[in-house]
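ok here's Aspartate-semialdehyde dehydrogenase, seq below lol
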Amino acid sequence: KKLNIAVVGATGAVGTEILKILETRPYIQHIKLFATERSKGTRIRFQGKEHQVETINSQAFKGVDVALFAGGKASQEYATEALRQGAVVIDNSSTYRLHDDVPLVIPEVNPHALNNHKGLIANPNCSTIIMCMALKPIHNISPIKRIIVSTYQAVSGAGKEAIDELYEQINDSSNIQPKVFPHQIAYNLIPHIDVFQDNGFTKEEMKMVKETHKIFDDKNIAITATTVRVPVIRSHSESIYIETEEKIPLPLVRKVLADSPGVILMDEPDKNIYPMPLKASDHDEVFVGRLREDIYNPRGLNMWVVGDQLRKGAATNAVQILDELLKRNLLYSSHYLCG
Ligand code: 2RA
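and the structure came out like this:
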């Protein structure tokens, strides 16, 4: 059976990528595109047909098999309504990620979490996905006990307006009035992503802690994160230090990473080859390089990881969740089950 799909937030930075990836999938019968009032009426070509972007109405999800929410406020307002109308929901917002009955899934890492889904599946935060893709193959050899991560996050992680803001500031630096970011982002770094929490960390930093615990099903990993916005258009980079329970020889780390689906080992420093945002952009894989054993701790390992956060960090992962649901024959919503 082919599917009726809805994409909510179809005209935003993540929504646009979701459509690009869905375009390649053979299982779509019909697509409905939703966005806010501002984008109403926009025409988008998808699989050879023109579609008009609509705003969500009370019957929006009738007959929809799967609704992909690109993120933001729409999830809070409409995800449960989509479920009620019988759709399986794949949600890219942070709203439901930590709910006990909502699987938080990276298909290469914890696909089994889908088995008991109740209709709503959450897509993890972009920086979390990128980190977990690089770390899970290592965690499988010897459990990771400690993670210290600093991120270098592209402006597109904050949406389309954020990209415009960076270009505007570069084009005219005489009159800068930050709107999306709390400070000028051009020629600057901002060590502040999402809101500050009582413990001094930002919500983005705590997402990396809590979501990784849930995805790895291991609350004992001591994780500390510093998340930084950088004036890069696309692809997040992460400097990651880990400590494993046992020492893992570096050649073995290289081998498991090179063999991991969705990961590309890019680590030939003698040839100036290492991951960079410009190289990773528009790719679905996560790139890992600069692998080196810590000088002071034989169980310590440093690495540099880069991934396109709009692709594997958001859209690709969401569509892969749908692929995985189909593969496992798990495409039903709780509403459907209850009749
Ligand atoms: C960011 N992690 O880059 C966010 C997007 N979900 O701002």
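fwiw The chain has two domains: 3-123+315-338, 127-154+189-308. kinda neat tbh
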